[in-house]
Design goal:
It is a single chain. By secondary structure, the protein is α+β, with helices and mostly antiparallel strands. Helix content is about 30%, strand content about 20%. It contains seven helices and ten strands. Strands 2, 5, 6, 9 and 10 form a five-stranded antiparallel β-sheet that branches. A three-stranded antiparallel β-sheet has the order 1-7-8, covered by helices on one side. It has a two-stranded antiparallel ribbon with strand order 3-4. The longest helix is centred in the N-terminal third of the chain and has 17 residues.
């Protein structure tokens, strides 16, 4: 990566290494959203980051590493599609098939590759965006690939070795201890009967496999908030 871009990434991450968001606006938005969720008989709860969390790392960005900002609240968030993907991965890869209350295609829908939109179907649950409930503390972080020529080779692959120069890359994360509200909404009566099971699957997925990027290295784990009424 050119030196100017690396410096830009570090400067950009450092710029947002602070507490972000309007507290009154976030609390008002969360209260309004809770009333809507309750009216729709959805399940929702606040979950707190157990360690650092990052969303949108693969998005296009001038300094290489993207970040997902909510378009009206101006704070980090996790899109509902990412929540759905995380829970689907948990149900598909970690739960025995007999523990599922219905076929996985019914839960999450289907989109057969190459079959066109006509063959696609929606799932019986709606997974909503996970949005902060209060101001959010962001922290700058860094990853340091040691074998960049090996990773980026498109022809003859060079053997990875200690003679390659480390390449520090700055990026932005959400700090531990920050609260987000996750929610699942039933789309059908069939889903309504299984809401408790589905929300428990979400809770387990957040605790065990994590949300967002870099989950294989410990990022993105969440735990339920301890306060009553959350």
């Amino acid at each position: 990566m050119p030196r100017g871009i690396k410096a830009g990434a570090a400067d950009w991450a450092a710029r947002f290494d602070r507490i972000l968001g309007d507290a009154d606006l976030l609390k008002e938005a969360d209260a309004r959203r809770c009333r809507w969720l309750d009216a729709c008989q959805a399940r929702h709860r606040r979950f707190v980051t157990d360690w650092r969390f990052v969303s949108g790392l693969g998005r296009d960005h001038p300094v290489e590493n993207g970040f997902a900002w909510h378009h009206t609240l101006g704070v980090p968030y996790l899109p509902g599609s990412s929540v759905k993907g995380m829970v689907k991965s948990w149900c598909r890869d970690w739960l025995p098939g007999e523990e599922l209350p219905m076929p996985i295609e019914t839960i999450f829908g289907t989109a057969p590759e190459g079959a066109g939109d006509e063959a696609a179907s929606v799932g019986v649950f709606i997974f909503l965006d996970a949005i902060p409930t209060d101001r959010i503390r962001c922290q700058a972080d860094v990853m340091t690939p040691h074998y960049q020529p090996y990773y980026q080779s498109t022809g003859e692959v060079p053997a990875p070795g200690d003679w390659f120069s480390p390449n520090p890359i700055s990026f932005l994360t959400v700090a531990p201890g920050e609260a987000f509200r996750f929610a699942i909404m039933p789309r059908t009566d069939q889903a309504m009967d299984k809401m408790d099971w589905m929300f428990q699957a979400l809770t387990d997925a957040l605790e065990w496999i994590g949300a967002g990027a870099k989950t294989a290295t410990g990022y993105g784990r969440f735990a339920p908030a301890s306060h009553t009424g959350d």
